Amino acid sequence: MDTRAITPVRLSLADVTFTGAGLMRPECVLSTPAGTLYVSDRRGGVMEIRPDGAQTLIGEGNPLLPNGIALRRDSSFAIANLSEDGGVWRLARDGTCEPLLLEVDGQRLGSVNFVWIDADERLWVCVSTVRKGDHQFRKDIADGFIILSDARGARIVADGICWTNEVRIDAAREWLYVNETFGRRLTRFRLGADGSLSGRETVTEFGTGTYPDGLELDVEGCLWVISVASNRIIRVTPDGEQSVVLEDFDPAHVAELEEAYQAHRLSRPMIWNNHAKVLGNLTSIAFGGPDRRTLYLGCLSGDRLATFRAPVAGAPPPHWSWS
User: Which DSSP letter does residue 179 get?
Assistant: First the structure.
């Protein structure tokens, strides 16, 4: 790849501002051309943040723990339910919810981490692990998988993944990318026209303190990877070259995480406890604004969204043309 075509991006915490208020576990964020944001909310639904700052909570009180969310053509949402009851649910604008996908290959779905809808309106579902408690945050366990649900039904299209997190498809529709959080790598699969995945490759591996969670693409074909726990944003070229865009972490905390990670005793509180100065334990990213150069950052522990401007635009998400 000609790296001269890649715009350098490096930002500081001074570039960060905030939007939204009173959010609860805003793990995933979506943007629209109209400037409206949608954010997952642990109260059971999705928070709508309009351009004038007004907020409306859609679906409060539903028995869900929303994690990943995706916008459907009919303006409803697909919700990844992170609770043990699990499954993927449809949340309507009036706040009612109903199941979209509760089982695959004859087995009931437990906790679901992420959902994404592609340009063909196919639903991609990520199950990080079938383990529970603190036994799931290990580099030697790879029981995560990816489900595709389309006109043919739902089926597992990739497995053996070390804590499946967010997925994206490149602009040419040749590759599906996935973050393996506790495998500490960005992986891709060759994408078939029928949604089949093959030819698994490691794009890049991450080092100390980086646990890839959120994922997005920009118009130059680079991938923006969000690291939970260390509040890192890393931009990865298609050939795997990494550059840190922004970070906000406590070195002592990262060292503690690394020691626990290598000893297979990493725990949920260790990952969730935020030791940053400004950022709220980042988990996801969305490009927005009229030019898609305003970035919004989802997080685990903050009650608002960090945002900043970038010199490169994000690739338009599939819902951009029909939201």
Answer: E
CA of residue 20 relative to chain centroid, distance: 19
Answer whether residue 143 shows pLDDT above 80.
yes
β-sheet bridge partners, residue 227: 212, 232
Cα distances (angstroms) measured from residue 81 to each of 40, 259, 290: 11, 31, 31
Domain boundaries, the chain: 10-321
Burial-class residue 24 by CB neighbours within 10 Å (0-12, 13-18, 19+): middle
pLDDT in tens, 180-222: 999 999 999 999 999 999 999 999 999 999 999 999 999 999 9
Q: Does domain 10-321 have CATH number 2.120.10.30?
A: yes
Contacts of 38 (CB under 8 A, 6+ apart): 29, 30, 32, 46, 47, 48, 49, 69, 71, 77
Name the residue among 211, 210, 216, 105 with its Cα closest to residue 169: 216
- Using alpha carbons only, what angle is made at residue 123 by residues 120 and 128, rounded to the nearest 5 degrees? 140
